[in-house]
């Protein structure tokens, strides 16, 4: 709630699924008005730029963060297929999600709406309502191990060696699974960790905790990925209803 304007949706290691309840969601990539998407479902893949979420002062809906493994389990596709995309359930081809907004609007309480979303997601994870009858292959084990290590701050060369792959092969597999390359994934993961601490610790401590060289390095990275400095984001958008404690990229969790 607040004055009409634009909210920044920051880069993350998860895909974002939004089910608006009062009006279709209008979202675009920052600086790219040609990418505007409007609909009753909004699905965005991993990106290195922020999203611009347009609102009239009040927004209400259900937002889910899907891990890379969650994209496979619920959507039947790798997250890489949706990289840098702003789309919806129709384009993803998931019938159960396509029908969900209308079902949500028929319910009276938030508790009922959340319970319905829970049931639909469980059914999807079990295979009901998936795209047609095509089998949904799982993530390659070495990629799952690599994603955990990269999100934890390990160097790309060390990760490649630990899973028995060349740096180039690891990069190709990670990009196909996520839509970003290993160094980019590590970069976004570090940024997401900083976001979880911003406003709770001094900037210098946030930089030290999250693996930045210093506060100036944190500020440069934040400006590049968020489109504004940490202090501007704190002034304009913190605290925000969507903010939750940061968690690492869990390749085995849906």
Automatic annotation (TrEMBL):
Entry GO MF terms: DNA-binding transcription factor activity; sequence-specific DNA binding
Limits of the HTH araC/xylS-type domain: 155-236
Domain of life: Bacteria
UniProtKB keywords: DNA-binding, Transcription, Transcription regulation
Signal peptide limits: none
SUPFAM superfamilies in the cross-refs: Homeodomain-like
InterPro entries in UniProt: AraC_XylS_family_regulators, Homeodomain-like_sf, HTH_AraC
UniProt keyword Transcription regulation present: yes
Protein name: AraC family transcriptional regulator
Source organism of the structure: Nocardioides faecalis
Organism classification: Bacteria, Bacillati, Actinomycetota, Actinomycetes, Propionibacteriales
